[in-house]
C-alpha cells in the first residue's frame, strides 16, 4: 500500500536524526500511554506488535512505559534489519524487545497476552482471523483506526467488529484517530 511505503520511507529518514527520532518517539509515547491504560498493560504482559516498521516506536514506547516484554514482527526484511539495528543501538536486550521477520497472516498468537496491530497492517481481516484462531482466551487485541480524512489510505474499517469493544481517542498529529480493544 502507498501509505505503508511512505511511512517506511519517513521512518527510515527519521531514524537517521536523533532529534527527529526523539520527537517521533514522544508522539508515540502519548498514543501508547492511552493504549496501555485502555488494555491495562503492565510488566507481566507479553505484547506482540504486528507491523513494527523500520522505527518500531510503538514497541519501544510500550517497553519503556510499562516494562512489558515486547515482540515485534514485520513482513519487510529491510525494516527488520533496520529496526534490529535501532534496538541494539538503544541497548534493548532480546528479553525486552525481540524483532522477527514474519507475515501477520501466519503468526501464532498463543504466546502473547496482548496483540497490537499497526495502522498500516494489511490485510487486516486476514491477520485478525489468524490472531483469533491462535490466541489464548482473554488475550487483549488492540487495533488502531485512522482519522476520517485519511481512511482511504488504509485497510479499514473494522468498527463492525466493535459492537462490544472499548475505544480510546488520541489527540495527536499522526494519522491515528483511535484505538479499539477487542476481547
Ligand atoms: C510503517 S510501520 C508503522 C508502525 C510504527 N512504526 C509504529 O511503531 O507504530 C507499519 C509496518 O507494517 C508492516 N506490515 C503491513 N502489513 C503487514 C502484515 N500483514 N504482516 C506483517 N507486517 C505488516 C509494513 O511492512 C510496515 O513496515
From TrEMBL:
On the tree of life, the source organism's domain of life is: Bacteria
Q: Does the keyword DNA-binding apply?
A: no
Q: Name one GO molecular function term.
A: nicotianamine synthase activity
Q: Which InterPro entries match?
A: Nicotian_synth, SAM-dependent_MTases_sf
| UniProt keyword terms in alphabetical order | S-adenosyl-L-methionine, Transferase
Q: Does the keyword Transferase apply?
A: yes
GO biological process: any one? nicotianamine biosynthetic process
Show the PANTHER family listed in the entry. Answer: NICOTIANAMINE SYNTHASE 3
- List the protein's name: Nicotianamine synthase protein
Q: Which organism is it from?
A: Alkalibacter saccharofermentans DSM 14828
